[in-house]
């Protein structure tokens, strides 16, 4: 009671204020010092980080192994597949479908081989029209083909004992360079964008457009089709045409008109959206197209268009 009186007299508190001061003061000291005391008592030194890291790494490895089959199921939803090694040049349609290819893809590969085509490296499969990248990524390690063709060995000419004196041709340096540029030809179905840039007037933009248009078509059936590439003027085409060629044995990638979806038909440069609708309606109404004559009867294409389109279609 003496402490209360001293506090009350010293601070001039009322009785209620004095009681509050007596309660709050000890509580403040408790709040200030107890957390520090608790930390010193409960702090534990932990040195098991390396062990925990090894355990976590092993759990991640197990997770990846367990997730791999489920990822393949997500890439190929609804398809009962049996991943096994396969040689696309000899596999039957049933074997191709067994590793996840649908009937249309298996049929295209089989028809491509029947027409004389072959696969030399794994990535050749992606040239088949409609072959999805996600499916290729799953099957890549099971394809029994090399990743790339071996580079041909180049024989280095041995220097002769006596130097041969060559007579200088009566051409200027500029004329000799021009003759060298004009002396080569390119197969437009096999040349890549870098090779196409060897043509005078063809830069990166034009070369990439030519390659893209070739992929959309399924291959060039004639060098005249290069004129259809966006931006290629008639004068530019006339200047490069003598250096272009099409291998007559090249197998165009064809679309089976009876099996193709709306999206697949409409993706071809020679078939418009409206023409695609009419073709799909005709299939629903009259059934399969038995030949090119059935397509001609629809009168969807003029005489020039139909001649250009037919090489890219199958009627099976």
Automatic annotation (TrEMBL):
InterPro entries: Endo/Exo/Phosphatase_dom_1, RuvA_2-like
Entry keywords, A to Z: Membrane, Transmembrane, Transmembrane helix
Keyword Membrane attributed: yes
Highest taxon of the lineage: Bacteria
Sequence intervals crossing the membrane: 21-38
A single GO cellular-component term on record: type II protein secretion system complex
Any one biological process term the GO annotation gives: protein secretion by the type II secretion system
Protein name: Helix-hairpin-helix domain-containing protein
UniProt source species: Roseivirga seohaensis
